[in-house]
Design brief:
heterodimer; A: 249 residues; alpha/beta; Rossmann fold; 6-stranded mixed beta sheet; 5 helices; B: 459 residues; UDP-N-acetylmuramoyl-L-alanine:D-glutamate ligase; Protein-Tyrosine Phosphatase, Chain A; 2 domains; 15 helices; 17 strands; 34% helix; globular
């Protein structure tokens, strides 16, 4: 088995340690004797998503996101839309998550059309939502409790054809108002969680890996790993943020 | 000019609060100034008026560069003040000036070396009216506090716009810093940098804080890299490019775990420079300091002597007589942390490594930056690391970072408490390198200084 990962715009959308998610995906496969490879697709490159099992898009600065729009509109947007409908496994964080939605409207009313692959949109706000977060994934997304860090000023609102990834326990989540966090649509998982998201949340990481591998190789169940260090980091943070232990509860 | 009455009261109050702080064995480096500013918001502008000041700002190297300039001032026999304690916001800078002026606001010192936080520059420069401003570099740093890097850049730019006569010493190799001179400022500029001929060993990094042109957003091309996004950049689309530095490191003669020697080209010819601090990024700090000290009229000979004798403190390559010799290397952001790791990769003895991660306000509450630092480099020298400790409030996260960088998890020891960590280290005979974040450094340093002597942070 080999997992083929596409890292889209790694040179531009690379804020807040999101690259740690790629490190995590690859190491957790390596420790199980499964190969993986990462292709970095940058501005100007052709994107052929049928070559890949998993697409990862991270978050970036506003300055950098502006650089991307013309490149997306030159064909990548269409490719992403059809691959998602086709069932490609996608993990997308913060700016990358917003980018897959319909549009972004700035605080002063300027609307920017995005990829339009997911039924959601984002509206800029004056205040930033910053801090550690805890959220509980829906049953469809594995039901695990995820701990992360968010830093965004955009408020994201989900449409009726997508589901939230999780419900907020600590923090703001999508918009600080409806207690939803992230998005789940087919095999797309979007989240505001930096941290990076995966290393402290091995259960969620393995769910992604199994989803991606199963699509190519038929139903795959990964062997368990020694996750004591991961779970210690996970549980200690949850204890600090909620005053109680949620893991396994 | 006569001082307004609120300024006089503010000075009295500030000195009184500082006196009380020291009685209570507290630093009192920022609080007295903060309260004095409530009575007189522009107090600093009165006190700094007659002082010839160098201000140092930027993401990394502010403290080291300031201490180097200070060493040159001291070597030149100038009477100066400096905010040595790291209190580099308006409040701390004001406190320092109050403590160095008479009750009527008359300056007791003719010169000053002031380290200034990059977000505070906007307000500080206008009141400080520095003769010379050094900008060391710009890297992503504490995004939860500073926001995006372009925001930091515009903070500094705003600060500079208030002082059109100040001479700027800018890092020519940093496309972000160099862009300060790109907006038609009237300020004179002196450039410093490291030329391609120096052959500074660059470990290629997949992550750049400035990959695309700040002017036109096209991707930069590079003739060479020195580290992170620093190097010989040029934009193929709009032509924005690196300036030839006035002070350029042209050759590195030697670099070991204690010092480096380099040839530097200056407007008055080539000089041979010994920097009494290891690691390549300190060559940049030395070049910046030399550029600034020259701009203040200090002779090259004196600068060279100062840099050769200089020893930094306060967690920046600071040495302690603990275990087989301990060095503390403060780390704050991916660029600085990767540089520290690159330095460690060149140490050729066995040693003990300690990494301490906190997430308090002064460290940045977001610790995800550790995943952007090149800890994968540990794989190339993990056999020389005989023991690896992680410590601090977020030791668990640090442990994970090291595990996923490929360091064997079972060789990592977690010790949250600085006291017990110091106990364990004091049993060792090997050299120790400690990489702490800012508040982790303060905590651990206090314990180590208590154990084996050293200065309090305000000294």
């Amino acid at each position: 088995m080999e997992l083929k990962i596409c890292h889209l715009y790694p040179d531009v959308l690379n804020l807040y340690g999101d690259g740690g998610n790629i490190i995590c995906l690859q190491q957790r496969l390596k420790w199980r004797g499964i190969d993986s490879c990462v292709s970095r697709v940058v501005i100007g490159d052709t994107l052929r998503l049928s070559d890949f099992d998993l697409l990862f898009i991270g978050g970036g600065q506003d300055f950098e996101q502006e650089v991307l729009l013309p490149d997306l509109q030159s064909g990548k947007d269409k490719e992403i839309r059809s691959a998602i409908e086709d069932g490609l496994t996608v993990l997308t964080i913060c700016g990358g998550y917003q980018m897959l939605g319909q549009y972004y409207e700035t605080f002063d009313g300027v609307r920017c059309d995005f990829v339009g692959a997911l039924d959601l949109y984002t509206v800029g706000s004056r205040t930033r939502m910053i801090g550690n977060t805890v959220f509980r994934c829906t049953e469809e997304c594995g039901g695990s409790t995820v701990v992360g860090f968010e830093n965004h000023s955009g408020k994201t609102w989900l449409g009726s054809s997508v589901e939230p990834l999780a419900h907020v326990v600590v923090g703001f989540g999508n918009n600080g108002e409806d207690h939803t966090e992230g998005v789940h649509y087919k095999n797309v998982f979007g989240s505001y969680s930096h941290g990076p998201m995966l290393p402290k949340n091995p259960e969620f990481c393995d769910l992604l890996l199994e989803t991606a591998l199963s699509r190519r190789y038929g139903s795959v169940k990964l062997d368990p790993l020694d996750d004591r260090s991961e779970l210690t980091a996970h549980d200690n943070m949850i204890r600090r943020l909620t005053g109680q232990s949620l893991h396994g509860a | 000019m006569k001082l307004p009455i609120n300024a006089v009261i503010a000075i009295l109050l500030c000195r009184f609060l500082r006196f009380i702080s020291r009685l209570l064995h507290r630093g009192g480096t920022a609080m007295p100034g903060r309260i004095a500013m409530k009575l007189c918001p522009d107090l600093l502008s009165y006190l700094a008026r007659d002082v010839k000041t160098v201000a140092v700002t930027g993401t990394n190297g502010k403290t080291t560069c300031s201490r180097m300039i200070e060493e040159a001032f001291s070597e030149a026999g100038l009477n100066y003040l400096a905010n040595r304690s790291g209190a580099n916001l308006m409040s701390g800078i004001t406190t320092e000036f109050v403590m160095n002026s008479s009750l009527t606001g008359k300056a007791k010192k003719s010169y000053a070396v002031i380290e200034c936080d990059e977000a505070a520059a906007t307000r500080v420069f206008a009141q400080l009216s520095p003769r010379v401003i050094v900008v060391t570099n710009l890297f992503r740093d504490q995004l939860d506090r500073y926001g995006e890097i372009t925001h930091t850049l515009s903070n500094i730019l705003q600060g500079i716009q208030a002082v059109p006569e100040a001479l700027l010493c800018l890092n020519a190799d940093c496309s972000l810093t160099a862009s300060l001179a790109d907006g038609g400022l009237p300020n004179p500029v002196h450039w410093y940098g490291v030329n391609a001929s120096a052959g500074m060993k660059a470990i290629p990094s997949l992550l750049s804080d400035a990959s695309h042109c700040i002017r036109c957003k096209a991707e930069y091309e590079y003739d060479y890299h020195t580290y992170a996004h620093l190097g010989g950049f040029r934009c193929p689309k709009c032509g924005y490019h690196r300036q030839d530095p006035d002070f350029a490191v042209t050759k590195i003669l030697c670099m070991d775990d204690r010092h480096s020697e380099a040839v530097m080209n200056t407007p008055s010819g080539d000089i041979c420079l010994t920097v009494n601090l290891p690691a390549s990024y300190n060559l940049y700090n030395a070049a910046a300091a030399l550029c600034a000290a020259q701009a203040m009229g200090i002779s090259l000979d004196i600068c060279v002597q100062a840099l050769g004798r200089f020893s930094c403190g306060f967690g920046r390559m600071e040495s302690f007589p603990l275990a087989g010799g301990t060095r503390m290397i403060l780390v704050k952001n991916p660029a600085g942390c990767s540089q520290a790791l690159e330095f460690l990769s060149g140490v050729d003895t066995d040693y003990i490594l300690v990494v301490c991660l906190n997430d308090r306000g002064a460290d940045g509450t977001d610790i995800s930056w550790i995943w952007d630092a090149n800890f994968e480099l540990l794989g190339t020298f993990s056999d020389r690391i005989r023991k690896l400790y992680v410590s601090g409030d977020r030791a668990d996260d640090m442990r994970l970072r090291l595990k996923y960088a490929g360091f064997p998890d079972e060789r990592i020891t977690v010790e949250y408490s600085p006291e017990r960590l110091t106990d364990m280290l004091s049993q060792e005979t090997l050299p120790v390198y400690i990489m702490p974040t800012y508040t982790a450094m303060l905590d651990l340093r206090t314990v180590i200084v208590h154990r084996c002597g050293g200065k309090e942070f305000w000294e």
